[in-house]
Amino acid sequence: MSKDYNAIIIGAGIIGCCIAYELSRKGYRTLNIDFQPAAGAGSTSNSCGNVRFYYSTRDGVAIAYESAWYWHNWRQYIGVEDVRGLAAYHNTGSVFVKNRVVDWPRVKTNFDSIGVKYEEWDLATLQQKIPVGDFHSFYPPRRPDDPRFHDGSDVWLEGACYTPESGYVGDPQLATQNVECAAMSHGARFKYNQRVAEIRRDSLKVLGVTLESGEQIDAPIIINVSGPHSFKITEMAGMSASNNIKTRALRHEVHVVPPPAGYRPEDAGYHTNDADIGAYYRPEAGNMILTGSVDPACDPQEWVDPDNFDDQISESQWKAQVYRLARRIPGLPIPNQPSGIVDLYDVSDDWIPIYDKSDLSGYYQAIGTSGNQFKTAPVVGGMLAELIDKVEQGYDHDAAPMKYKLPHLGLTIDMAAFHRNRKINRNSSFSVIG
After folding, report:
1. d(CA 372, CA 47)
2. Which of 41, 42, 54, 13 is nearest to 271 (CA)?
3. d(Cα 352, Cα 367) in Å, to the nearest integer?
4. Between the CA of residue 251 and those of 294, 299, 381, what are the distances in Å?
5. Distance between CA atoms of 220 and 392, rounded to whole angstroms?
6. Domain segments of the chain: what residues?
7. 415 band by pLDDT with thresholds 50, 70 and 90
């Protein structure tokens, strides 16, 4: 029975590794446990790695914009050499197509209050910047079997917002492994190919974990960062009833298609959010286009057991996403064979994360990331490390939720926005937009 650790982190995705890095820098002896064979090998590996700043809440925008510093200064943040190389950040800029889904004036107000750099593009500018696009409005998004899917439109979009510091990380797993390397340089340890079978506790506090192998590991702190498995770990800790905000696993597909002839996305493309057609899209390696759904009402939601779900691309969702993109980009070739990935979101009731303690002493949560928090992982790592450190020293986070000062923007956010017992935030998009 090991007594070598004072913090066990369940999960070694990007957020779990960032928490390990920040806690180990504070002197904690951390152990990440993951049933996958390597850091970031779970849902993180299939993240689209998008770095954009338009969220439906001010706190969401602030954390996302703070994250830009880390991705622009990745080598400085990591602080060590990783023999595997460093993940590259593709600073394409991001285009937010103005639409009837997201409240642009509210996003603009948040941008202005936080200091996000942006440009407003009118329709003519949008057409000039993305000449392959047809910027009529096709709202509401529909599926190809809808008889109105191919209806024409005489309504033009207003334009777009462009944020020049945005982009995407092309290799999310390598980014996670970079953080793992940085954490290990401060003494963090990782255990792979191992499942947690039990969270041992008494009536007041956590005691440690038992693995499926039978190994018991003691620690006074356990952090649930298990992604789509988060609700199972919450149940294991006996905390399901005590969180007002719940989480569950949602199956999600993204697809890859070739660009129109003569168009090179890696040279001329942007990360784009286009809720008018219910899609996001960005350049992909090999001068391809990656596209996913922003969860419009016409797309069915498939809540699944994260240990038993269909990981094959479905023809119906492939057609829905790719054909909608072809409405926006009329010259888009439609391949005969679908290409893409299927994985899971860890979705909270309002699609806003839980970054919090719990009613069980020593048990913490970084869950419900809803497919939109990859970019924020370095910020969340620092925020959770500070929260854990303060609570372990006696701070009552429930009575007075901690205020966290973002180290590069200098702004302060109220962690009540991410509290497990908050009311459902009706300002949320209730989608991957966050």
Report:
1. 9
2. 54
3. 9
4. 13, 12, 26
5. 10
6. 7-85+171-247+350-418, 90-167+248-344
7. very high
- Residue 10 backbone phi and psi in degrees, to 5: -90, 105
User: What type of residue is 44?
Assistant: T
224 in Cβ contact with 239 (< 8 Å): no
Amino acid at 419: H
Terminal alpha carbon distance of the chain: 42
d(CA 207, CA 350): 31
- Among 187, 192, 186, 236, smallest CA distance to 210 is for 236
CATH code for residues 7-85+171-247+350-418: 3.50.50.60
CB 289 within 8 A of CB 259: yes
Q: How far is the C-alpha of 326 from the C-alpha of 319, rounded, in Å?
A: 10
Q: Is 101 helix (H, G, I), strand (E, B) or coil?
A: coil
Distance CA 78, CA 166 (A): 20
pTM > 0.85: yes or no: yes
Amino acid symbol at 237: A
Give the three-class secondary structure for 231: helix
- What six digits make up the tokens of 293? 């759904």
Residue type, 425: N
The answer to whether 297 and 431 have CB atoms below 8 angstroms apart is: no
CA-based R_g, the chain, Å = 21
Q: What share of the chain is helix, strand, coil (3-state, %, to 5)?
A: 25, 25, 50
C-alpha 308: how far from its chain's center?
A: 22
pLDDT, tens digit (0-9, with 9 covering 90-100), for 264-317:
999 999 999 999 999 999 999 999 999 999 999 999 999 999 999 999 999 999
Helix (H, G, I), strand (E, B) or coil at 31: strand
Closest residue by Cα to residue 282 from 244, 319, 329, 238: 329
- Of 409, 418, 413, 102, the closest CA to residue 280 belongs to 102
Position 2 pLDDT exceeds 70: no
Nearest partner of 272 among 65, 58, 41, 98, judged by Cα: 98
CA distance 356 to 153: 46
**Top CATH class, 90-167+248-344:** alpha beta
Provide the residue count of the chain.
434
Helical residues (DSSP H) of 228-299, grouped into ranges: 230-236, 265-268
Question: Which of 346, 377, 291, 287 minimizes the C-alpha distance to 87?
Answer: 377
- Give the C-alpha separation, 36 to 382, whole Å: 24
